[in-house]
Amino acid sequence: MEIRPTTDQDRDVFVDTLLTAFGIFPEAPTASGTVWWSAFEMDRNLLAVAADGRPVGTAGAYSFELTLPGEVLVPTSGVTAVGVVPSHRRQGVLTAMMRRQLAELRGRGEFLSVLLASEALIYRRFGYGPATYTQKLTVPRHRAALAVPRARGAADDAAGGSVEILRRAECGEILEDVYDRYRRAQPGALSRPHRWWASGAGQPPISPAPRYVAVHRDGDGIPDGYASYAIGEPGTLTVDETIATDDAVFTALVRCVLGHDLVTQVVFKHVPPGHPLRWQLTDFRAGQVSDDTDWLWVRLLDVPRALTARGWFTDGELVLDVDDPFLGERGRYLLTVRDRKADCVPTDLAPDLSLDVSDLGSIYLGGTAPSTLVRAGHVRAHHTDAAALADALFRSDPAPHCLHWF
């Protein structure tokens, strides 16, 4: 078997092999020629070819920026399009592709890789750990009233702002600009390069699928938030995503969609765990949570570089013993945080925590408390204070969240 990089000339073969692996047929392009794979970067993809010349596996990567705690923007690879055709599964094809891909990412000087896992059992063995989470929130229309805030007047919400209803085709530039401002301040968020918007790659509202968009403007008329939605049967208004630069703007957009006539329920597809929306409802039980799931998985390729890149909110020292069985590596590092910056160097000191690199990926953005993994039996705390110290160090404010589908 050969694993080789692809070029633009391999696009059709790559896509056909990928679709065969997933057992789906090509979708028809839209009137604009859009398909969800329009943003593939063929110079970053790999094709596994059997000895008889048949393509049997694919693995790809996108070039993104990831926002780390402390509003730090770093380049990262978004692993995608990973599949093996059914006739060649469990023969080492996937493992060989993932090993080759990680080597190439390191060769590019990258220290982080992320993905969305189609199956939770697959990617931990390659060093990835779930790092952000998302929920679906369903609110019956007849129970959708928002409570008057007790700590401040309702008039304080997005004072001076307004909401305008537009169609997706009318506001592409607005969506692109507002999302970009949002993602720069939101830990766990990924960039959406212009080519994604230009080609309509991905899911709504990036794709040109028919959508209404509630656009919020501040007192000066500048867009600072949006909610993309569609109404389907039986009377369900589904919000693809709500993007806002602050909580007051979010509330104004929520009030708009919850007040829509001739619908029976409003479904918010992506709400961060712990979001205050349920508390804003007059009837707390009206907000029904479902599809509580992982979203972005993180893989550290260079532990010291990754730990010194992000921002920190508490001073302290922690010795981490990190095992990376897939790459056959193990390292012990002294993490020292002072004044929101970290230093991370190899050390022979006794460890505070011993953990797998996938567990380090889970806690890296602050979305998973180290103490949770200690209690689950995955991370070993070598003394009673270690988990609490790690919780304080790795926390993120705000909590990480990712909306982007790739």
Say how many strands there are: 19
| Biggest sheet details | 7 strands, mixed
State the fourth-level CATH superfamily of the largest domain.
Gcn5-related N-acetyltransferase (GNAT)
Stretches where pLDDT is under 50 for at least 5 consecutive residues are: none
The top level CATH class name of the largest domain: Alpha Beta
Structural class: alpha+beta
Order the strands across the largest sheet as they lie in space: 1-2-3-4-5-14-6
Backbone shape: globular
Radius of gyration computed on alpha carbons: 23 Å
Number of helices: 10
Share in helix: 10-25%
Order of helices and strands: EHEEEHEEEEHHEEEHEHEEHEEEEHHEH
Mean pLDDT: 95
Q: Can you tell me about this structure?
A:
With 406 residues, this protein is α+β, with helices and mostly antiparallel strands. The protein has three domains: 2-110, Aminopeptidase; 134-293, 3-Layer(aba) Sandwich (Aminopeptidase), CATH 3.40.630.30; 303-357 and 364-394, SCP2 sterol-binding domain (Nonspecific Lipid-transfer Protein, Chain A). Helices cover 23% and strands 32% of the residues. It has ten helices and 19 strands. It has helices at 11-22, 93-107, 172-185, 194-199, 247-258, 277-280, 303-309, 357-364, 370-375, 386-394; strands at residues 2-5, 46-49, 55-68, 72-84, 112-116, 129-130, 133-140, 162-167, 212-217, 223-232, 236-244, 265-271, 288-294, 296-300, 316-324, 329-338, 341-346, 353-356, 380-381. It has a seven-stranded mixed sheet with strand order 1-2-3-4-5-14-6. α2 (93-107) links the parallel β4 (72-84) and β5 (112-116). It starts with a strand and ends in a 12-residue tail after the last helix.
